[in-house]
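Renewal narrative, Specific Aim 1. Our central claim is that a sequence can be written position by position from structural information alone. The example that follows is taken directly from our test logs and has not been curated for this report. It begins with the structure tokens describing the chain, in the order in which they were read.
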């Protein structure tokens, strides 16, 4: 569970770094586009096709506006383009902007799908964690039962040991009493013998 969560956090961190890099690229591309607009007085459909193919010598297969960075909000597009530019935009530039927004929508849909997958993964991880907790609770209950049984056995053993010790002490007392009686008898016999000897003398 922990490893899955760490892996997910690592992926999110990498994703944020990629978003930051993409956003920086986007800003640079936008700046270059604005400079070209100032120089040429606007872009045509041919310019869009060139950008789509790779910007005429720059990274091929990826236009300046063809890739919409993940996490990029559509509102930023409208904030970055002044009302004057929108009002005076030609039909070709409108087509370019529409393509840009279409690409952005596709990227946003992909991001939503990723978030849904991440949510499902989290739900699965939580379910797995709940199962593990339930297993641990069962193990704890089993250990408690075992502890109770062992404690009962220990008490029985201690009781038997006490009983055995008491029996040993009783036996020792009996032996001591017998020895004392034997000693007393021997002393009495010796005294009687001494008396008999004295009488004979």
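The sequence written for that structure reads:
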């Amino acid at each position: 569970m922990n490893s899955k969560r760490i892996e997910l956090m690592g992926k999110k961190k990498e994703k944020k770094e990629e978003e930051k890099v993409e956003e920086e690229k986007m800003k640079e591309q936008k700046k270059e586009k604005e400079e070209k607009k100032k120089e040429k007085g606007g872009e045509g459909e041919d310019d869009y096709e060139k950008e789509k193919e790779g910007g005429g010598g720059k990274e091929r297969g990826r236009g300046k506006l063809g890739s919409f960075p993940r996490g990029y909000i559509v509102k930023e597009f409208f904030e970055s383009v002044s009302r004057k530019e929108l009002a005076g935009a030609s039909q070709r530039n409108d087509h370019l902007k529409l393509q840009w927004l279409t690409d952005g929508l596709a990227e946003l849909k992909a991001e939503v799908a990723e978030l849904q997958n991440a949510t499902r993964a989290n739900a699965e991880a939580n379910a797995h964690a709940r199962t593990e907790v339930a297993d641990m609770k069962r193990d704890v209950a089993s250990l408690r039962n075992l502890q109770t049984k062992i404690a009962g056995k220990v008490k029985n053993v201690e009781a038997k040991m006490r009983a055995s010790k008491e029996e040993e002490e009783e036996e020792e007392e009996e032996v001591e009493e017998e020895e004392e009686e034997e000693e007393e008898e021997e002393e009495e016999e010796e005294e009687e013998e001494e008396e008999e000897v004295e009488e004979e003398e």
